[in-house]
Amino acid sequence: MSKRMSRVIFGSRVLVRIFALIGAFIAGTGHSLAQGKPENWQLGFQEGVTPIAHQINSFHNLLLIIITLIALFVLALLIIVVVRFNEKANPVPSKTTHNTTIEVLWTVIPILILIVIAVPSFRLLFAQYTYPPADVTIKAIGNQWYWSYEYPDSDVSFDSVMLEDAELEAARKEGFEAPRLLAVDNPVVVPVNKVVHVLVTASDVIHNWTIPAFGSKIDGVPGRVTQTWFKAEKEGVYYGQCSELCGIRHAFMPITVHVVSDSVYETWLKSVQDDEEKARKVLLQAELKRRGIKNVADAESIQLDNKTQMNR
After folding, report:
1. 162 in Cβ contact with 252 (< 8 Å)
2. DSSP category for residue 147
3. Average pLDDT for residues 134-158, to the nearest whole number?
């Protein structure tokens, strides 16, 4: 083997290792992000907070590493061919037409790769469509361009509409985080570590109920009821959006879910039936406590600092 060929092979191996490490780094960056919403310069998925989301993230990371290695392997082969078999380096080309070993390898190896991909894929699919008994059931109805929610077991129903810019400022002064284009006037509230079934439909056109941190994404079709489920393992506020083109204001029908303790959930559920303002204060206190903020003034100061950093 020539020295040039040895250098090419060595360089290819180094590239494979470097890009494999880069792929693994990119795959894992999503887990260091803020919880429940997208972030600037985000790589990877949002941090998963449900069993399904954990499986989706793991499967995604596996696929990213596999496709990175395949791409680098093909790149290395192309470099070897260009360097080793150009007209100058190889003036008399080989007339070989068959190689049994290579033909077996390029048939068997892709089959093995597909099997490696298929096992977690089918496991994930089975988990998504195996519904544990529900602790809470919610019906989500997509409308142009807002969501309506019903809690059938508690006789609670309300509309959930995106907060406009003026309303956002008011919500932030109250102490809510209220990210633009994601915050709503009436969020969904569920207890932590409880199985929640979401029945999804629509009143006009096809919508899609999606919360990335839950691994939940299901179409709402007029005249039909589809179903998804999640079990949030961390308290927090999680955001999503309609993910099916549904008209001119498709981008302005977000979804907000507050995951709270059992006691906060029970208090909110009793309050929302009679006093929406009291229910709102229950959620505000839970959010401030979760964020480690003692009062509304501290919350305003933190949000002002965040806004200043973003403007920079």
Report:
1. yes
2. E
3. 94
pLDDT value at residue 245: 94
> How is the chain split into domains, by residue range?
3-90, 136-311
Residue position matching structure tokens 């129903």: 157
Q: Which band of pLDDT confidence, cut at 50, 70 and 90, is reported for residue 19? A: low
**Residue 309 clears pLDDT 60, i.e. is over it:** no
Give the β-pairing of 196-202 and 226-230.
antiparallel
Closest CA to 214 of 37, 50, 56: 50
* 160 or 29: which leads in pLDDT: 160
CB 44 within 8 A of CB 32: no
What is the mean predicted confidence (pLDDT) over 147-164? 94
Backbone angles phi, psi at 142, to 5 degrees: -85, 130
| Helix (H) / strand (E) containing 184 | none
Residue type, 170: A
User: Locate tokens 């990335």: which residue?
Assistant: 212
Q: What's the CA gap between 164 and 151, in Å, rounded?
A: 26
> What type of residue is 150?
E
Burial of 108 (C-beta count, 10 Å sphere; 0-12/13-18/19+): exposed
What pLDDT sits at residue 310?
Answer: 41
Whether pLDDT at 287 is above 80: yes
DSSP readout, 211-254?
EGGGTEEEEE-BT--EEEEE---S-EEEEEE--S--STTGGG-E
CATH of domain 136-311: 2.60.40.420
Virtual CA dihedral for 300, 305, 311, 312, nearest 10 degrees?
Answer: 180
Question: Does residue 93 sit in helix, strand or coil?
Answer: coil
Q: Are 247 and 205 in contact (CB under 8 A)?
A: yes
Q: What is d(CA 251, CA 304) in angstroms, rounded to the nearest whole number? A: 26
Cis peptide before 145 (omega within 30 of 0): yes
Task: Return the H-helix or E-strand segment holding 116.
Answer: helix 100-128
Confidence of residue 28 (pLDDT cuts 50, 70, 90): very low
* Residue corresponding to tokens 């190896």: 109
